[in-house]
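Notebook entry, structure prediction.
Reason for the run: the old model in the group folder had no record of what sequence produced it. Starting over properly, with the input documented here first.
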Amino acid sequence: MPSFVLDRSRMIQKNISLKPYNTFGLDVTASHFATFSSLDELNQILHLTETNESQLLVLGGGSNLLLTKNFEGLVLKNELHGISILKTENEFTYVKSAAGEVWHNFVLFCIENNLGGVENLSLIPGSVGAAPMQNIGAYGIEIKDVFHELEAYEIATGKIRTFNLTECKFGYRESVFKQELKNQYVITSVTFRLTKNPKLNTSYGAINDELQKQGISNPSIKDVSNAVIAIRKSKLPDPKEIGNSGSFFKNPVVLKSHLEKLKVTYADIPSYPVDETHVKLAAGWLIEKAGWKGKTIGNYGVHKNQALVLVNYGGAHGSDIFKLSEDILQSVKTKFGVELEREVNIL
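New structure, fully documented this time:
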């Protein structure tokens, strides 16, 4: 439990339900909860408490989180807002966004200003601050492709540190903030390097098919964004209607030799080259072939249109969804000899 050393009555609330703050809609309780909309507020709140890493949870959109139990510590809701164009150099424009901004709102800001690079990441749930933590990606684009730098508040010292691309150590749905620096920083802003003359990436997934369906042969970044939105809406449930965290599992990377063994039985197994010896498999395909797509267990299950998505139909417990994910992991490993990894954070 946090140890409170100053008057906190105005800033820190007790025993708050986190149901409105996580996209799974899980009704767990935080023993202490606070929001901050300025660095001064963040500093004051953290100076009101003494917490260790396991007692602090910083929330953005709550879209990449599975809460399996009540949180006995301090939950901080990031409500830092503001987006601004910093400068333009040659073909690039640098845009800075506060970490509490809704990610899709940031994408729309870029599109309105004809700045390319994030249109393929339209409609991804969550906040701007969470985007580099996860190195979010979709349709052939990842945050690292447009990232310039971020600012983060160091909890131990109260100082602001700037991280560049190399220092963030981006990987596949990974960053330094999910590994060695986990719970040591609060991301406060992110600066992106976007293009004034956008080069569209429409070859990944069904973007070209969707554009053709809409009768668009010479697309703008807004057209690409609209196509991505249409595809996502057709495949993924709206968290406002059905509790979910989007893709629950990462696409696994395996040796090419293992793929060749699988092709003997599953000739149509989809794969994507990674390097000379490795390929990436589609986790959704594996889960579907293992018989899980559309499976419902009481008030939770696997979405009928996308096997990567686990859903809470209302009233489920996080522990139930976690157990379902365990069963899926074991099933895929038994059937294909492939170990899946969860993309969401488990608490």
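Summary: The chain has a mean pLDDT of 92.
The old model has been moved to the deprecated folder.
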